Amino acid sequence: MxxxxxxxxxxxxALLLSLAVGFVTLAALLVDVLGDGIGYVDRTLFTxxxxxxxxxxxxxxxxxxxxxxxxxxxxxxxxxxxxxxxxLEEYANRERWYNxxxxxxxxxxxxxxxxxxxxxxxxxxxxxxxxxxxxxxxxLILTLLVLPTVIIAAREAIRAVPDxxxxxxxxxxxxxxxxxxxxxxxxxxxxIATGSIxxxxxxxxxxxxxxxxxxxxxxxxxxxxxxxxTALPIQIYQWVRLPQAEFKLLAAAAIIVxxxxxxxxxxxxxxxxxxYRRTW
Amino acid sequence: MLHMTTxxxxxxxxxxxxxxxxxxxxxxxxxxxxxxxxxxxGALALRDVELDIHPNSVTAFIGPSGCGKSTFIRCFxxxxxxxxxxxxxxxxxxxxxxxxGSDVDPVExxxxxxxxxxxxxxxxxxxxxxxxxGPRVLGTTDGLAERVQKALEDAALWDEVKDRLKESALxxxxxxxxxxxxxRALAVEPDVILMDEPASALxxxxxxxxxxxMHELKREYTIVIVTHNMQQAARVADMTAFFSVDxxxxxxxxGILVEYDRTSKIFTTPGDQRTEDYVTGRFG
Lengths: 280, 284
Description:
The complex is a heterodimer of chains A (280) and B (284).
Chain A: H1 2-37, H2 43-47, H3 60-91, H4 97-109, H5 114-128, H6 135-159, H7 163-171, H8 176-204, H9 208-213, H10 232-241, H11 245-275
Chain B: H1 15-18, E1 31-40, E2 43-53, E3 58-62, H2 69-73, E4 86-94, E5 97-98, H3 106-112, E6 113-116, H4 127-138, H5 144-154, H6 158-161, H7 174-186, E7 192-196, H8 204-217, E8 222-226, H9 230-236, E9 239-247, E10 253-262, H10 263-268, H11 273-279
Parallel strand pairs in B: 2-10, 3-8, 3-9, 6-7, 7-8
Antiparallel strand pairs in B: 1-2, 1-4, 4-5, 9-10
Helix pairs in contact in B: 4-5, 4-7, 5-7, 7-8
């Protein structure tokens, strides 16, 4: 009897330990970063461009560029991802080989490493299309990067709408488009929004593909969509590499800003999910 | 007319012999079904069905599980179209017009022939928006508030919900949700209402209310109901069709129509031994 109880206790302890690994690491990271960087999260950080003088250096171009990237990502990735998800869930006939191939490809695309997307962006967008090393190219490559995730999240949300809702709408003489636009999508939107935000926040932390397509590390002016750009993760990377100790603290401050943006987005996604949670 | 060439052997039902007595037939039938067969991915689910549905009456389809009665009722509003690989062969004539004709739009069919499902399926919207959905998609929104009120009154739900039309329909009880689904179907002013086991998920009191409602509604509508509750068929239906499962030599199970007649006859002096076995509880 006690042996069984011990085994249960051991198992529970093991589970707690696995939880602790993730949680303690994150907490340690936060405490460390906050301790280093909080003093540098000030007006200068948000209003000034990078400088060789740490006391005057800020991350304004990088913060702005990250916000621009996020906005463009939303603009590109959500409509395309949603359209693909609607097609696959509501219109595609799964008996057809090309639809099955599409599905398989999307699953695989989600597993492609971000550096590969960067290479594609460099070859196809920056050079092939002659877009140049501009913010728009960065936004487009991040769009491709998150599309599979957005599609998969949107499909899950659409699939969670019970078929009885579609049948009920059809039985009232609704057309396919009316069923999709007036019943399925409104019911799926909270799930779609949650998934999209989580994918977006993942993309904003990406560094590799942006470096690959040539985001520059030193920008002294506000970014434009068709101009050269940097982003917060790249700015952090650049500061960390500099020899002066003050830049390491500045990097910590930039990490705090980036984390604050991402955690806010994630919190909003969680709030959305809870707010519209529905039991059928 | 398309004939099922794959079916062999003698017809199991002599429709002529069991046709309803003329006294009950109030004018032209709403539906005439001839030589109907439904297959899913090539496997026959139902075959050789022939019957007429009469206006302003309640027609019940009874029979054991797997006899194809739910498959059959979905032929009347072309809901089987939504199932990939479902094929319907034969004729379903609605006021003389073939519902499966190449020029017939299934969306148009469903505007005329409403449906209530086994499990209440209110939309995740307000009570008002549920009932208003049909008129809105059809673009008939003149006097929408009055339409919604009338539909809710006709479904015997108005008094219970008139003060909370803006609240979510998901907050209603199961019985109320099902009456809401009936109101939703009525709001598009259909000609026929199909009900696929509408009370099977409800408590006895809610069931009684739905049955009472059917008696009221048949004055204005033609009602077709699938039920596996024989007492319910006996209480509400004017005509009853008994379906059964035919197991072929190769083990394939296909639904067939065994007998179709006035309800009183089906339950007291059925013409077929299989019907008698079923209604007396010796089978199924």
